[in-house]
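For homework, think about our next protein:
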Amino acid sequence: MEDFQKLLDLCCGTGRRVYIQTHNFPDPDAIASAYGLQKLLAHFGVETSICYGGRIDKLSASKMPKLFHIQMTPYDTLRATMVDSDPIICVDSQKNAGNITDFIGDEIAAIDHHPTYVQEDYQYADLRITGACATIIADYYRQMGLTPDEDTATALLYGLKMDTLQFSRGVTALDIAVFAFLHPLCNQEKLAFLERNNMEFQDLKAYGAAIENIELYGASGFSHIPFSCSDAMIAVLADFILSLHEVDIAIVSSGREDGVKISVRSETPGIHAGELTHRALNGIGDGGGHATMAGGLIPKSHPQGQYFKEELRDRFLCEIEQMEAIQR
């Protein structure tokens, strides 16, 4: 754990507004983490703006800005006014991670719970393997003896619950400690509202396509969605495929305007989802993540940006075979 005071001194030393940047398609954990950090820095007089490069396309995330009055600004709105010296804190992501736009500005810090594949020279880096990035932000409050307000506590707890799939995925001892810290402080009615009705009618089409196109190779389940799906929906479908009794590794892909998006899940000991994705996409795209969940993208700009699903499948099966061989 990095000392939060170091980040605070760094932000105050810039004398400028600090930009808190999430990954391009902010989910509940990214939004909660950015919001929690914004409120914490505001306590010490640091002015910040939360920004992102893509869109909020998950219903479970889109409820949060309105409910908690969170101002989140798309990069297209800021592009004309930001300058190279504007300080940026990357939250729930890291520069060059493949899911975050390189903004104009100076990335001075990164706070993230994902493994690091591309090392960057941040002036401050708190990169810890936890179930959610919200856990790291909440831990700052705990360590400093500060009590987050009700909305902040509720947002952080929601982000923690969503990213750990209700404490069933990637949970660490710190996640449990943070839950105990946040739970008495949160608004249970708002939390229940956020957790209800998070599926839209159009999502049923994606579920239908995932079921129709699933292919099993041993304990690996592949499904290619023949139309564009959001990052959030592809991740949900990967969880859905993994829920099958016969599947221990799930790989879901979708062809989109920006290329081929992939979401990966693993329940197999020794098959690290992030490492698997990173290796399978090496040379054609970017990917990575946790031991149990990961994501990747083959950009359309790449010569292989329209990768056929069979070739993508073969790449993953080859890496799975090699990783299993190492375990034997």
